[in-house]
Each structure stands twice: as C-alpha cells, then as structure tokens.
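sry for the spam today, last one i promise. struct tokens for design, 153 residues
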C-alpha cells in the first residue's frame, strides 16, 4: 500500500492572500518544492486536499480553479515533482469540507493509501483535525518553516 503526503493548498503551498484563483497571484511558499521532492524521493504520493469555498461564494468559477490547478501542477512538474491528485471541496458545508475527513477518505479509497504511514501538512487546525479523523499517522501544522517537517519524512 502506498503512503501519501497530504498537503493543504492556500497557506501551505502558496501564500494565502484570500481566495487566490489567478496564476499571477499564486506565490509558492519557500521550501514547498524541497519538501515535496524529499517526499517523492521517499516514495510518498503527493496529494493536495483543499477547501475552495470561493467557488460556492461566487468569487471565482470551477474553471478558474482548474486553470490555476494546471498552472500549479506544471510548476511542480518543471521541478521533477509529480502531484498525484488534487481533491477539492467547493461547498460551504458537509463532510468533504475540512475539518470533515471526506476528501481524505476519497483519496484513501482511490489510491489504496496506508493512512497510518502517511503525513499531512496544513496551516490551520481544521487541516490537522481532518487528517487525524482520517487516520493520517503524522500531522504537521505549518508555521513558517518546512525544515523540521522535511527532516521527519
């Protein structure tokens, strides 16, 4: 069974300016590429789990989100990093929306992931709560530095 590195997006992969949906506003956080490269080297699938309520709120469209997704995945690919999948929740409520664990469960079922051997990183307590509910073994609250997290992979 594969293990996964589950990443929140806004505030973990990119600087969270609030409802980021355009590539020109997407600024990668220092150290995210290094963290993902190390995870990939150690055999982790890299899966993004992100709430995207801006879609339901009408701030941007699903198409806008998908276009930004393509840009983000290409930026990782240019650095030799494969993003396995992106699970997102555009709804304002429900079990898929973090702190619910629905997106983690979907990923686990789709890729037959060993959740106990997996790792999650998020910038908000709800990210960690969702991962814990899904049985993810190691969970890190990102607070401005990926070095400790990278060392623990």
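last one done:
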């Amino acid at each position: 069974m594969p293990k996964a590195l589950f990443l929140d997006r806004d505030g973990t992969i990119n600087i969270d300016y609030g409802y980021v949906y355009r590539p020109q506003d997407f600024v990668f956080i220092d150290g995210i590429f290094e963290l993902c490269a190390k995870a990939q080297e150690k055999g982790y699938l890299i899966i993004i789990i992100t709430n995207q309520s801006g879609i339901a709120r009408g701030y941007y469209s699903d198409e806008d989100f998908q276009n930004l997704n393509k840009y983000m995945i290409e930026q990782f690919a240019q650095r030799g990093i494969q993003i396995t999948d992106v699970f997102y929740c555009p709804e304002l409520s429900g079990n898929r929306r973090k702190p619910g664990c629905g997106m983690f469960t979907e990923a686990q079922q789709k890729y037959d992931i060993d959740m106990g051997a997996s790792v999650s990183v998020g910038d908000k307590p709800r990210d960690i709560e969702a991962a814990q509910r899904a049985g993810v073994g190691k969970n890190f609250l990102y607070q401005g530095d990926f070095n400790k997290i990278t060392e623990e992979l």
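The radius of gyration is 14 Å. ok im logging off now
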